[in-house]
């Protein structure tokens, strides 16, 4: 099953959130209606980046990388 790594940008305060899912649009809706504790305070969000991966393990490795300092810098270069 395909998995996706995604980055969201808060329209409220510009904070960045990186996650993994099998359905990006459903997950964005969950973030925007406050079902995710870590993003609840800063809704609404917009998708700024996605990557498709063939399996959960590969997607999780990429998610961990993007959550690192170097990975966050990579995402920031995309949005600037």
TrEMBL record:
<dbReference type="Pfam" id="PF01541">
    <property type="entry name" value="GIY-YIG"/>
</dbReference>
<dbReference type="InterPro" id="IPR000305">
    <property type="entry name" value="GIY-YIG_endonuc"/>
</dbReference>
<feature type="domain" description="GIY-YIG">
    <location>
        <begin position="1"/>
        <end position="76"/>
    </location>
</feature>
<keyword id="KW-0255">Endonuclease</keyword>
<comment type="similarity">
    <text>Belongs to the UPF0213 family.</text>
</comment>
<dbReference type="InterPro" id="IPR035901">
    <property type="entry name" value="GIY-YIG_endonuc_sf"/>
</dbReference>
<dbReference type="InterPro" id="IPR050190">
    <property type="entry name" value="UPF0213_domain"/>
</dbReference>
<protein>
    <submittedName>
        <fullName>Endonuclease</fullName>
    </submittedName>
</protein>
<dbReference type="GO" id="GO:0004519">
    <property type="term" value="F:endonuclease activity"/>
</dbReference>
<keyword id="KW-0540">Nuclease</keyword>
<keyword id="KW-0378">Hydrolase</keyword>
């Amino acid at each position: 099953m395909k998995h996706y790594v995604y980055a969201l940008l808060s329209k409220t305060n510009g904070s960045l959130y990186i996650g993994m899912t099998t359905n990006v649009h459903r997950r964005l809706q969950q973030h925007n209606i406050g079902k995710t504790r870590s993003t609840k305070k800063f809704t609404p969000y917009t998708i700024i980046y996605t990557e498709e991966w063939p399996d959960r393990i590969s997607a999780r490795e990429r998610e961990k990388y993007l959550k690192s300092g170097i990975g966050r810098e990579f995402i920031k270069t995309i949005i600037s």
